[in-house]
Amino acid sequence: MRDSLISYAGHVQTLQKRLDVTLGNGKRTKRAANKLPVTFTDAEKAAFDQVKDCLASAAMLAHPSPDGVLSVFTDASDTAWSVIVTDVEKWQSDKPVADQTHRLLHCLTGTFSGSQENWSVIEKEAFAIVAACDKLPHLLLRPAGFRLFCDHRNLIHAFAPDTTVKKHIRGKLLRWAMRLGEFRYEIHHIAGEDNVWADMVSRWARMPATTSLRRVTTRGQQQQDRLLLRPLDDDDFVWPNLDTIAAAQRKFGDKAELSRLEEGDDGVRRTDSRLWIPAEATNLLRRLYIIAHCGPQGHRGRDAMLAHIGRIFYVPHLRQCVDRFLASCLLCHHVKGGKVVPRPWSETYRCNERNQALHWDFLYLGESFGDMQYLLVLKDDASHYCELVKCETPTSTVAADAIMDWHSRFGIPRDWISDQGSHFKNEVVNELCTRLKCQQIFSPTYSSWINGSVERVNRDILQVLRVLILDYKLNHRDWPRLIPIVQASLNHTAVPSPAGKTPGELFTGLEPPSPLQSVFLGPDVSPSVQPARTSAEIESSLAQLRARVRDMHRAVTDARLKQTLLNKKRERGDNMVNFDVGDYVLRSRVDEKRQNKLLVTWVGPYAVTAAHAHNVFTVKQLVTGEELDVHASRLKFFADKDLEVTEELLEHVAAQGIILRVRDLIGPTLVVPPMLVRHRWNDESRSYEILVGWHGLEAIEDSWESLTAMFNEVSTLVQAYVAAAKDSKLERHLEALEASTKRR
């Protein structure tokens, strides 16, 4: 019936809706539908009668007769093609084909799409013939053959059955002519007015389809309170307290809603032992979001904020509110790239017991004001608990000391998982592993993703360090001071992979601290001095603690397996570009291969000044005023054109490690290059510094830069300056730098 009725979907739409409502969420089978009573409305009765009328007036299909003449009529319009197959039991030679007694056997039709719409007329007409041969071989493959009728005279010569292929036939027509060689047929020309049925069916596709707009995604320019770069440093920021929360509840809560909440002795209402925050208290919620996201929390993202806030507060539609807040955070744009899709099959090694498998790796963070350049990352596989060890160089001694320190606090892990670096794969670590009765597991060379657990925490470390350097306005060489904050953020922040628990809680069993403790400490605060407990009580408490930890680890195992299955099904898509002239965007940094890892990935903002073809935009640097053309794939939206360019924003742009060029030499008679005019000794970094002038900036903006860094960038200019300075100590320092460079 679906193939026999014209506009089948439109006729049965009303009846289909009634069937969906009747079946509901039950089984959608014929047997289940037969047992359900159905009552039609007047509109549904009319639709049912219309379907019956269509069935009564539909053309009846016949069976082909073995002695009859099979006729195939084809035609094509600009948008569609059609095939009509008929059977004539007794062919009368004295009558034209239009006057014969035809019985309908089959009807085919289709539309041209894509490149087919650009085909020539002869190709569209020929396609209808080839479609009939491809889809109806059960009718056309017969001993007596069939008669083919078309209203395009050129096809009579192109597809005429002959022993040779015509020389003028090329491309598609040549392939299609060879395809027709499998059939026995006679091709005839028929006038257009006589080919009425095929012509009419091919023109049905000309009817314009009803277009409805289901959904469109746009980026509106809404006037809202834009988040400051560093809201915690704002003088107007006020930390909330219980009195503030109680006042917000009285102001925005209605009587019916307040009556369902529990009121404590402090006058604050709660639900499920959590403080209730009205959704209308936007000012209070904004301050809570800032505390849970900015500063030492490291801008960890949505899941971390939901965990911090959800433990203490109940906020209606918290997820949507957090998403809107994160969209307005200006620092997150610099360190968050596109959506990170994990590998569908995850890591090859998994452990479900804490302190049984330890991942470790060295992470290079660049030069610091001291001697530290590397970070040894140790991560427990089951709980994701990690420790960070600062070191000067990646050596086996550092690795052995770190594993012994871990052993002194938590015991020795059974498996040590690492790459094949010489600091792990050597006699010292191997001997230590043998004495402690452990085993080393090495990931294959150039396959770091196999040890993806530690690579994932390395990415988190770099992200938190980058945003903390921007947030605290520090030099990127000050990264050793931030390592304790980074480690605390990693261990005390709940994420989805360990079932919403913090790594520290899973590893130690201790309740994690909350950044919102200054707002709310809980109604029942444990006394600072507790009575002494007996040995039996201590043993019972330890047994309960171990049981709770095991229960948490079972939940983590289930959550990790579920996340792996979801990653396999996750679709990957592209982001649409939607920038206007005047908008502010961030540009993806593409520096040399060995760039500073602590520099942010997305620099800016830049102002969009022009849009060109092929998704290319001209952007302007806010500090230097330099304009450059950037492809849209290297740009990310930052703010609308109403963003106020303040002095703080300009300082923020200048502190991101933008690439500047040393000014050219001014005058050939000068002995000392004018861009390097002075030098001094820095006791803290134990290195010389040189005053550098930058191209595009004023002389007042000259800066003191490390001699080591400048030698790595512009060694020729540094050597010329040292030769002209006539300073013996400076010369010896440069010789030491050159010697260390040659050793590399």
Automatic annotation (TrEMBL):
Residues 340-511 form the Integrase catalytic domain. It comes from the Eukaryota. Pfam families: Integrase_H2C2, RT_RNaseH, rve. GO terms for biological process: DNA integration. InterPro entries: DNA/RNA_pol_sf, Integrase_cat-core, Integrase_H2C2, Retrovirus_Pol_polyprotein, RNaseH-like_sf, RNaseH_sf, RT_RNaseH. This is Integrase catalytic domain-containing protein. GO terms for molecular function: endonuclease activity; hydrolase activity; nucleic acid binding; RNA-directed DNA polymerase activity. Keywords: Endonuclease, Hydrolase, Nuclease, Nucleotidyltransferase, RNA-directed DNA polymerase, Transferase.
